[in-house]
Amino acid sequence: MANITFTMIKPDAVAKGHIGDILKDITDAGFKIKAAKMTQLAKQDAEAFYAIHAERPFFKDLVEFMTSGPIVAAVLEKDNAVADFRTLIGATNPAEAAEGTIRAKYAESIDANAVHGSDSDENAAIEAAFHFAAKEIF
Ligand code: IDP
């Protein structure tokens, strides 16, 4: 699935009513939505999803934030999906995100940063499978 990436619209952006704006930016940038759902992560889901960050000082806050409200999870398809999507969303810290990127437009802070984007093809496949059964990816 080299042309696939996985995203979440995070609780801050959902709470602020930006689901539609962000999905429009994503599809305008040439991504096809292969799967999408609104859901809320349980603590153990967020801990498992972000297990790679378990030793980082912000881990507890990250899990608390990601479970604080509903998210929209989606699988996206495009040539060069992982890299192009990270360009579209901008730097982790919205203060450093390039103008016009999703995080520059909608994120509040380095933790409440509006969207997730996979960082490799391997993680995109793992993250898509974490949230969606094969028959839910079209
Ligand atoms: P990424 O989402 O841009 O790939 P990562 O370094 O993988 O960034 O971090 C995962 C998530 O953890 C970030 O999107 C952000 O929500 C949170 N995070 C990263 N660094 C910090 C920090 O220094 N303080 C608080 N939260 C952070």
Automatic annotation (TrEMBL):
The enzyme's E.C. designation: 2.7.4.6
Active site: H116
Binding site for ATP: K10, F58, R86, T92, R103, N113
Keywords assigned by UniProt, alphabetized: ATP-binding, Cytoplasm, Kinase, Magnesium, Metal-binding, Nucleotide metabolism, Nucleotide-binding, Phosphoprotein, Transferase
Record-linked PROSITE patterns: NDPK_LIKE
InterPro entries for this protein: NDK-like_dom (IPR034907), NDK-like_dom_sf (IPR036850), Nucleoside_diP_kinase (IPR001564)
Reaction(s) the record says it catalyses: a ribonucleoside 5'-diphosphate + ATP = a ribonucleoside 5'-triphosphate + ADP; a 2'-deoxyribonucleoside 5'-diphosphate + ATP = a 2'-deoxyribonucleoside 5'-triphosphate + ADP
Any one Gene Ontology cellular component term annotated for this protein: cytoplasm
MF annotations from Gene Ontology: ATP binding; metal ion binding; nucleoside diphosphate kinase activity
Co-factor requirement: Mg(2+)
Protein's UniProt keywords contain ATP-binding: yes
Described purpose of this protein according to its UniProt entry: Major role in the synthesis of nucleoside triphosphates other than ATP. The ATP gamma phosphate is transferred to the NDP beta phosphate via a ping-pong mechanism, using a phosphorylated active-site intermediate.
Oligomer and partners: Homotetramer.
HAMAP family the UniProt entry points to: NDP_kinase
Family: Belongs to the NDK family.
Protein's name in the database: Nucleoside diphosphate kinase
Source organism of the structure: Empedobacter tilapiae
Lineage per the UniProt record: Bacteria, Pseudomonadati, Bacteroidota, Flavobacteriia, Flavobacteriales
Gene (name only): ndk
